[in-house]
Every structure is written in structure tokens, then in C-alpha cells.
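Our consortium's second objective concerns turning raw sequence data into structural hypotheses that experimental partners can test. To show how far this objective has progressed, the report includes one record in full. It was chosen at random from the queue rather than selected for favorable results. The single chain below, 269 residues long, was entered without modification.
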Amino acid sequence: MKKIAGLGIGLAVLLAVAGFSFAELGEYSQVFRNRVNGAVHDRIPMSVDIDRMEVLIRKLDQQVESQKYLVAKSNISLQDAKSELQRKQTVSDGLLTEMRHLRGWLDTSSYATIQVGCHEVGRDDISTALRHKLAAWKEATATAEACAETVAQHEQACEALNRQFTEWQSQRELLKHRLEKLKAQYLTQQMKQESTPALDQSDLARATELADSIEKDLRVAEAQAALGTTPLDQILSEQLHADTGDIEAEVDAILGKKREPTTRTARSR
């Protein structure tokens, strides 16, 4: 890498001296970086990339708890927001009920005062109370509406986060299966690329060659011994170890059988 970097710097200096502009130098530098990155990536074995993928999946496994925490925190926050919205709506509804009562008392107070607890309340007091309740109800209603809008947005975000987490979990499990499949495919490819080990047949070849040589030498010796002999010599040579008496008896028997017809013919004459 140092040699490549040095070559790149030297090339940049050479281009600068040759009169190339900064824009052109930047373009050539980008091309050089792309080629260097491509060359480095091409030299990385596939097994290293598979191991790197396994490291990334382990990092995803370590992120599961933190992802769950974010989703759970968002869900609890939504629940709290809904509870707060319910409380504000309850306050608004309570003020509305009080205004309804005050409005009824206001009609009654036109004829007489009203006993509220230990106090007698006139029309002016009821009108003042009604005015305060109306202002409080408007404020509570506006607050509840704003809270309802916030809760709606929070609910949408929470639903999106839950969907994202489910998809993230699914993709993580899918990557695990893909990793196992890639490992199996890579192992199969490696087994196919490895040549079948051959048996050492060098000694067998030398022994076979030696046997052929010996057989050839024997044939030459036999052919050499057969040179200069006649067929009669061969016959006699084959019968050297035979029993001479047996041979003579066999010859006499053959000759006797041959002579008998001749002898009888001579006597008859």
C-alpha cells in the first residue's frame, strides 16, 4: 500500500509539473483511488468477506437489546401521553359539567338567591363563577386538543418504529440464514476446486518398466541361442534328456510294423 500511495503521489506531482489543472488533478486522483480500492478489494479472499459478514451479524445481535429498549421506551411514552390526554379531557369535561350547573343556577338566581353550602350566592356571583369556568374550560379544551394532536403524531411514530423493529428483526434472521447458505456454497465450491489426491505410482511404473526390460533381454538371449542351428539339431536337442532305450524300442516297434507287410508279400511270391 505504501508503494501504491507513493506511486500515486509521484504521479500527481508529475501531472502537476506537466501543466494539468487542479480540476484535472482531482479527477485523476479520483480515478486512481477507485482503481486502488478495486485492486485491494479484488485481493480480499471470499472467506474473509464471509467472516466479515459473520462479524456484522454478531454486531446486529448485540444491538437487539438496545433496539428493544428504544421501542419499549417509545411505547411507554405513548401510554403516558394517552393517560395525560385522558386526564386533560376529564378536566375539560368536568369544567363543562360545572358550567352546565352554573348556567342553570343563573336562571334560578333571577328570582332569588341560591344557598351553596353555608353561603348564599346571588346572580352576580354565579355570573362571575360562570365566566371563570368558561375561561378555564376554553384553556383546558385547547390544551386537550393540542395534547390529542401530539398523541396522534406520537402514535404514528410509535407504530412506524414498531414496524421498523419487526422488519429489522426479520432482516437480521434472514441474514443469518443467508450466511449459513453462503458458507455451505463456499465450502462446496472449495471442495470442487480441490483436485482429487493421486496415488504414488512411481515405484509401480519403474517395476513394470524393469519387467518389460527383463522380458526383452530374455527374448534376445533366446533368439541369439537359436542362431546357427538346424531343425534336426533342435529336434535332437529336445530329445537329449530322453531315455535312449525307450527310444530304440519305440523305433523298433515302428520299423517292425512297417516290415511285416513287406515280408509276407515276399513269401507269397
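The partners drew two points from this record. The longest helix spans residues 123-193. The chain has a mean pLDDT of 77. Both points have been shared with the crystallography group to help prioritize constructs.
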